[in-house]
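step 4 of 6: structure.
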Amino acid sequence: MVNGPLMKLMFKRFAWIYWFILAFWLVGWGGIILGTTADVSFNIEKHPFFSIGLFIALIWGAGIFTREFRQGGMMEFVMARPVSRGEFYNTVLLSAAIPMMSLMFMPVLYTITLYPWYHYTLPLDRQLLMCLAAGAWVVVILLLGINIGLFAAVHSRGRYGRAVSAFILAVLVAVFMNISVGVQPVPGSTDWMSLQHPLPALAAALLPAALLYYLGRRRVERMDI
Amino acid sequence: MWFRVEPGRGVPIYIQIMDQIRRSVAGGTLAPGEQLPSVRDLALQLAINPNTISKAYQELEHEGVVYTLRGRGTFVSGQASALSESDRLKRLDESVDKLLVEAYHLGCTTGEVLGAVKKRIKDREASKEGADDGRQ
Amino acid sequence: MMADSEKAVLVQGLTKVFGGQEVLKGVNLEVPGGSVFALFGPNGAGKTTTLKIILNLLQPTGGKIEVLGMDGVARSQEIRSKVGYQPETPNFYYRARVENIFSLCRSLYPRWNQARVDRYCDIFDLPVRGRVSDLSKGKMTLLGMALAVGPDPELLLLDEPFTGLDPLRRRQLLQLLVEEMAGEGRTILVSSHQIQDMERIADRVAFMVRGRVILSRTVDELLRDEKKIRAAFSGPAPEGMEGWPGVRRVEREGSRLLVTVSGQVEEVAGRLSGYDGAACEGIDQTLEDIFINYAGEGLING
C-alpha cells in the first residue's frame, strides 16, 4: 500500500536528509581520523543521537503533512490524481521514517567504518539491536508529531487547535530536554530502555506505533485537503 | 464559411446563425444545392458548442431552408418555406413591425413605405437573376 | 462512453460545514453525460468547494454525490482516474520542470495520453523543459489544462479556466474545449466568471449563490424564457402584478412599468395589453443580465 511514483518523488524531496546524514558522518569520520592517533573508545551514552533524533522527528513530523504538503498545494495536486488517501499517508510516512531510522543507525555506521581506531563499549550485535529500538521510538515520536500536526491542521479554523498543539509540542520538547541534559539517561526513559534493555524497548514501541499510525491514517482519510 | 456570433446579445446563438444563413440564402450568396460546412468544422471555427450548430441546422431543415443527406452533409434547398401559414405570417408581422418603427421615426408616409418595399423587391429580383446568370 | 441520458454528476442535498460555518446549504446539481455545464456564481458562492467535493478533495458534511455512476466518497479513487481536474489556483511542485510534472502524472494514472498533452503544450507554447516556477499566471492555467486532459478523462472539471488568459489564448482554449466535446463526447463542468465565453460552449448553466444552486437550465431556455416587458398605460396601471404567474419582479420607471418575466412571456404581455391604452415592448435579456438578476436577488434576500 505504498505508491511507487510518489515514493520516488518523496525521496527527491527529502534528499537533503540523506545529504545531512552523509555530511554528518564524513565530518565525524574525518575529525576522528585527523584528530586522534591513539586508540579511542566510544561511549554510546555520551552521544546524543537519540535526543537529536527525537527533536527532529517531533518537529518535522508536526509539519510534514501540513506545512510541506497541504499548504504548498502538493497534497491537493497528488490527491486530485487516482491515489488513495491511505496510499498517500503510507508513502509520506515511510519516506519520513526511513531517513529517521537511518539517523539512528549512525553509531553503527561509525563503528563499521572507523573500525580499527574506534571502539564501542558494546558489541556490534547489541549495538544493532539498540539502534533498532531507538529507531522504533523515534518513529513513534514521528507519528506523534504527525498526529499533533494533523490535529492542528484539522482544527485550524477552530479557536484552540493551534494553541493546543503548540502547548503539547512545547511540553514534549521540555521533556526531551530533561532526558538529554543528564549524561546518564534517566532510568525508565525510553533512552535508558533502549540502552539497557533494547529488546523490551523495541517491543514496547510497537503498541504506541500501531495506535498512532491508525489515528493518523484515520485523520488523513477523513480530512479536507 | 464564417458567421458572426455575438454572445451576450440576448439572442440564442443558434438563432443568430439561422438568421445569417437565411439572409445569405435570401440574398443569393448561398445558392440552392450548395453544401454547408459540417457541424464539427463550423463548431471548431466559431468556437461554439457543436450542439448549437446541429440545432441551427435542424431548425433550418424544419423550415425547409436546408436539407440533410445522411452521411453527405447539409445543403441549401432553395425551396419556399416549409413553415405553416400562420407561422410564416407571424414571422412576417414581426419583421414588418421593425420596419414600421424605423418609418415612424423617419416620418415616412404610408405611400413612401409601400413604394420603398416594392422598389427593394424589384432590385433584389434583378440582382438575383444577375447572380444566377453569372453562375450559369 | 456513457449514454447521453445518464448523469455524469449527480449531487443531491450536498452540505459542507467549515469550522462551524455552512458553506454549502443543500446543493442540487445534475450534469447530463456529454454536456457542457457552466457553473456561475459570485465569489464565495461555493463553486470551488462543490468541485472539490466531487473529486473528494473535501469531505461532504451531508448529502449524496454520484460521479460517472459511482459513489463520490466510497469510490473516489476510481472516479479520479477518469476525471481531469484543473484547479482554480494551480498547485504544482514548483521547483520541478514541466516535463517532470508530466512524467509524474503519467505514472500516477492508469492511462495517460502524452500525445494529447504534447499537442496542448504546442498550441499553448508551454516551455516543456522550463521550470514551473518560471511560468506566468496564464501559462500556469494552461499547464493545468494540459494536465487535466492527460488522462483522457470522461469528465473534465475546470475551475476558472480562463484566469489570466489573453483573448487569443481564450479563443484557443474555447476551440480545444469544442474539440474535446465534438470528438469524444466528454462531459465538461466549468466554473467561470466569463459568462460570454461560456455562452458559446455551454449547454446548460447553473447559478450558485450563497451555497445554493438557485437556477439550473439550458442556455436556450433561459434566453427564450427570461424577458423584460416595458409597459405604459394611458389609464391606471394594473395592481398586484407580482402575483401574476410568470412575473418575477415589477419596477416602476416613472409612469411606466418594467416587468421581469420568467416563462409565460406571451401570456403576461397579452394580459397587459388588455388594459386601457397599454403599450408593451419586449426586451431581450443577456445571460449576464439574467445572472445578475437572480444572483442579486439571492444576495439581498439571503
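step 5 of 6: annotate
 - Residues 148 and 165 of chain A are 6 Å apart (CA to CA).
 - Chain A has a mean pLDDT of 79.
step 6 of 6: archive
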